[in-house]
Write a structure and sequence with these properties.
By secondary structure, the protein is an alpha+beta fold. It has one domain: Alpha-Beta Plaits (2-Layer Sandwich), CATH 3.30.70. The protein contains two helices and four strands; from the N terminus they run βαββαβ. It has a four-stranded antiparallel beta sheet with strand order 2-3-1-4, with helices on one face. A hairpin with a 2-residue loop joins β2 and β3. The mean pLDDT is 92.
């Protein structure tokens, strides 16, 4: 399994319970498909550099996980159709020695 980093920006208009439910959905998807979450860093609400879908602020979350290529493809598919997420990006973390 490789290690990945997922960063996503959620809509700022969501309630606290909705942020938690979204985070549970993402972590549940990772564990359901055989992955393992290794870290979570919630940055909170910040101003965007430019408007995305008519929003000027967003709730930033960065998480790291281990998983296979199928998991990354499924995350990409699900997050791209999730209305609460403005933007996301998945990075592979390279082990350099």
């Amino acid at each position: 399994m490789r290690e990945y980093e997922l960063m996503y920006i959620a809509r700022p208009s969501l309630e606290a319970e909705q942020y938690e439910a979204l985070q549970e959905r993402v972590s549940g998807l990772i564990s359901r498909d055989g992955g393992e979450m290794t870290g979570l860093d919630v940055w909170g609400k910040r101003k965007l550099g430019y408007p995305i879908k008519h929003e000027t602020e967003g709730h930033y979350v960065v998480l790291t996980f281990k998983g296979g290529n199928e998991l990354v493809q499924e995350l990409d598919r699900v997050l791209s159709i999730t209305d609460e997420i403005l933007r996301f990006k998945i990075f592979r973390i390279d082990e350099r020695k």
